[in-house]
Design brief:
The protein is of the alpha/beta class. About 40% of the residues lie in helices and about 15% in strands. It has 3 domains: about 210 residues, Isopropylmalate Dehydrogenase, CATH 3.40.718; about 120 residues, Isopropylmalate Dehydrogenase; about 35 residues, no CATH class. The protein is built from 14 helices and 14 strands. The longest helix is centred in the middle third of the chain and has 17 residues. The two termini are about 25 Å apart. It binds 1,4-dihydronicotinamide adenine dinucleotide (NAI) and magnesium ion.
């Protein structure tokens, strides 16, 4: 049975990496129809909406999507670039990615950070004998994707009712001496239901893939209510349902230090929205960075798979593309896993591993060059050469 996948290239290099991923998906024998869906800056400028309703409808219908990247700019810049005919019509720019996560309640973000042997971008450290060690990292970060500091419940100069409510908390007393217009407040909201879903997802993943530990990466000693809720629930779920999996806890700040010392000891990591964003970027940097960092946004019905890089607009203009499509390939493999096509997913991962391991074909980021059209003369592979290499590798697996 052939499936329909919604393809949302978005802006900039999103438009480059999506077609490359589709070529690879076809090469591993994944049969699907791809329907294009509009998203991003172009549609903000033309229509005053970066996430048109017709895109939401396609997602509602087909449920599974590949997403490239979008360009996003601050509100004042957005207001300047909108079609003059739409000006003063009350359109306000918002992030279509955050919009998608909230609209479809894509509350579970998964960001696997695994090193490929032979990747020149892998983390290395000095060993005890002053030798160079290259530990293989295999951490999978589960980030709560809809709540926390990204809930959008925030004010500068809070309205009276909010201010009065805050005054009922005794820790608010010092702030009552500050003029109201000088108060900026962002609310960190965790709900038991969402915390339970992200924890369950993480524990299930650990169990299914044979990981021995789940680490909660928060800050419960300071942010007692929200981080505290996640930690307490993790202990309980671990104890009652996953007795074979160790439940560990680290503070986000300490975690960022430890990952530069011994990243190989971490397995499944769970965090709220903001800390999950931070810790997943931290680990991604140890395994190749933006050219390799893949992710999934999973809700109860809809799931969207995307590289974590942005639209890198400058690179989209080059006559021949030089960006690394591997992050998009690995995100596509996550999509295949999600719909039960695990063998094809594994084939993609093994093919990427083979090409990286052989080291003959390397995009500019893997050669540690700064990006420019000249990198091709310096021996960097183009985007499509990398795709061809990965496709060829799938045939040998
Ligand atoms: P970016 O991720 O687009 O690019 C940063 C730098 O990383 C690039 O200049 C390039 O050197 C490198 N890079 C990114 N992807 C690469 C790839 N596939 N291969 C090799 N190198 C790669 O982030 P930046 O420049 O901060 O943002 C550009 C635009 O993208 C902004 O409008 C931003 O808002 C948006 N953005 C969108 C995201 C999304 O769609 N999920 C995420 C991050 C940023
Ligand atoms: Mg990020």
């Amino acid at each position: 049975m052939s499936r329909t996948i919604v393809a949302m290239p978005g802006d900039g290099i999103g438009k480059i990496v999506i077609p490359e991923a589709i070529k690879l998906l076809e090469a591993v024998g994944f049969e699907a129809d791809y329907v294009h869906a509009d998203i991003g800056w172009e549609f903000w400028c033309k229509e005053g909406n970066p996430l048109p309703d017709r895109t939401l409808q396609l997602l509602e219908k087909y449920k599974i999507a590949l997403f490239g990247a979008i360009t996003s700019k601050p509100k004042d810049k957005a207001a300047l670039e909108i079609d003059p005919r739409l000006k003063d019509n009350g359109f306000v720019y918002y992030s279509p990615i955050v919009g998608l996560r909230q609209h479809f309640n894509l509350d579970i973000s998964i960001r696997p950070c695994r090193s490929f042997k032979g990747n020149p971008l892998n983390f290395i450290r000095r060993g005890k004998q002053n030798d160079v060690e290259e530990p293989m990292v295999d951490a999978v970060i589960f980030r709560q994707n809809t709540e926390g500091l990204y809930s959008g419940v925030e004010w500068t100069d809070p309205p009276d009712q909010v201010y009065e409510a805050l005054k009922t908390h005794k820790k608010f007393t010092p702030y009552t001496r500050v003029p109201k217009q000088d108060l900026a407040i962002s609310v960190r909201i965790f709900t038991r239901q969402a915390v339970e879903r992200i924890l369950q997802a993480a524990f299930n993943y650990a169990k299914k893939h044979g990981y021995k530990s789940v680490t909660i990466c928060e800050k419960p000693n300071v942010i007692r209510e929200t981080s505290g809720m996640m930690n307490t629930m993790a202990q309980q779920i671990g104890r009652e349902k996953f007795p074979d999996i160790a439940v560990k806890s680290t503070n986000i700040d300490a975690q960022m230090m430890w990952l530069t010392k011994n990243p190989e000891i971490y397995e499944v990591i769970v965090a709220g929205n903001m800390f999950g964003d931070i810790v997943s970027d931290g680990f991604a940097g140890l395994v190749g960075g933006l050219g390799f960092a893949c992710s999934a946004n999973i809700g109860e019905e809809v799931a969207i798979f995307e590289p974590t890089h942005g639209s890198a607009p400058k690179y989209a203009e080059y006559p021949v593309s030089i960006v690394n499509p591997c992050a998009m390939f690995l995100s596509s493999a996550m999509m295949l896993d999600h719909i039960g096509e695990n063998e094809k997913a594994e084939k993609i991962r093994q093919a990427v591993a083979k090409v990286v391991g052989e080291g003959k074909i390397r995009t500019y980021d893997m050669m540690k060059l700064s990006g420019s059209p000249q990198v091709i003369q310096q021996g960097a592979a183009t985007t499509s050469e990398m795709t061809d290499a990965v496709i060829n590798a799938t045939k040998e697996i």
